[in-house]
Amino acid sequence: MSAVTDAPVTQRAVAPVATRAQRWRRRYGLPAMGTLIVLIWIVVAITAPLLSPHDPNMVDVTNRLKPPSGAHWLGTDALGRDVFTRLLFGSRISLTTGFVVVIVGALFGTLLGGIAAFARGKIEEAIMRLTDLVLCFPPIILALAIAAALGIGTTNTIIAMLVVWWPKFARLAHSMVLTQRSQEYVEAAIVAGFGPARILFRHIIPNSVGPLIVLVTLDVGNAIITFAGLSFLGLGVVPPTAEWGSMVAEGRELVAQWWVATFPGFCILTIVLGFNFLGDGVRDWLDPKAMKR
Amino acid sequence: MTRYIVSRLGITIVMAVLATLVIFLIANTVPGDPVLAQLGDVAASNKEFVAEWRAKFGLDLPLWHRYLIFLYGLIHGDLGISIASQRPVLDDIVQFAPATLELATIGFVLALLVGIPLGIVAAVWRDTWVDHIARVVSLIGVSSPTFWLAFIMLAVFYGGLEIAPGPGQLDPIALAPDRVTGLLLIDTVIAGDWGTFRDAAAHLVLPSIVLAAATLGLITRTTRASMLESIQQDYVRVARAKGLRKSTIILGHVFPNALIPVVTLGGLAYAQLLSGAVMTETIFSWPGLGLYTFRSAAALDFPAIMGITLVVALVYLLINLMIDISYAYLDPRVMR
After folding, report:
1. Are A101 and A227 in contact (CB under 8 A)?
2. From the CA of A193, how many Å to the nearest CA of chain B?
3. How many CB pairs under 8 A join A and B?
4. In this predicted complex, what is the ipTM?
């Protein structure tokens, strides 16, 4: 709580006065880096056809499994396709699926959780039990089962992920709205004669939005990794679509031709790291308790 | 207290029954056709053959009838016959479970051994380079795709440096010990076969490191946050005032109090590892539940998928029940 209790236990040998730049770096360094990484990948995804030196799906078996060189910066894969080009195009699928799954899942979950907390009674009971029911399955296994059942394809995999994605948002929104409901401004709104929909959407949800934003930011990376994982297992995109997870799968036996699998995995790492840095920073900004630490 | 536990137990049972319904519906109402996936194009074009096949697995009955058959079987411990392996699903699960148990336990212990000390030092020396390193390590652990990490490990230590064994549980030429527990490390000791024991242990190194990496981040961050919370309590001030040494305060007073959230989250993480690390097991050809799940899903082997998902969901429900009950002991206010 106070600096007095704090100082002796976490005492620092020397406490030099931090310069402005140092303070800025300490507070905003990682989130700024995260933002930068994410922005770079978004720009790459949009301008992929302009940046790429080759056609992502052009098969050229005479040039298969060539190591990185001037003509093919990151080498070629088993079908002679340019790895660098496919990486650029792969960012499109990863970013799209990441954003679609998290945004649709968050909207749907928040709506259900909000309705549950606001309606109370039987509706609340039904919605929250449904949430618990989905949460009692390990997400990756349930998504795997659904994706396999629906058949291979980006849309089907996104649907499978959405089925397991919304409950955590429903739970969070439910508890947030429950807290807000008992606040006086809600009573004032009821007394003023506003309808339930207006109170929910105009007053309660905007006031509960902070933690939801944190969860959304941290979750995009999570969604990207999960999609890439399902894709790696052969349940994501349909070949020959360039996607990072399936590119790692294509190169997984090629240990001597390490460039085929190493670079796409590294791309996943950077983009997920970017979102996690960003989410960490957003949490610190929105949570005054964490800020003090 | 009894009333709370009974009500939690009741809810768990209802959820378990609902879970069977969910699994059944997923497996039976989706468009993928298991017969086509299993038989291949030539056999699938023969109508009589297909009909016979459907009848054999009861796929020609109405939906509700099949659900009742499924439930009836469950009560008798029958999870159905796997279409791919032609063996009872329960037998398959029993056969694959020990490998997962072995790998998950060692990976989990590894994550605890590294993650908890890392979280403690990060909290004690907060905002110093130690803390920053711990933060970056845990973030990288959480952010790297498991399947890629597994590939890099295999490429570097098996393909490149040749100091680690390849995928699988044992060397192809090694003779597996008689199956007693199914856990290779224990079975080899029982058989007194130390050569095979060393081989099995060596095969565990890479996959358990890969498995530990993701959990490590979670454990480190939870420990750190929880330690920071405890360090600010009044009893720490009292301990300081009494003149206790810093190490005594941290390890003797702060750490035990900070452990509760770590235990809760750690328990859930362990449950997740036990449910089969699909990616890790697939890449390391580890004959565990994760690999079984993946193979069944790829072959649209619905009895197997239903069986494994159900067993895993039941384990999850059971662990959640245990966590709920332990909360009641730790914090009686939850029983309100």
Report:
1. yes
2. 33
3. 169
4. 0.78
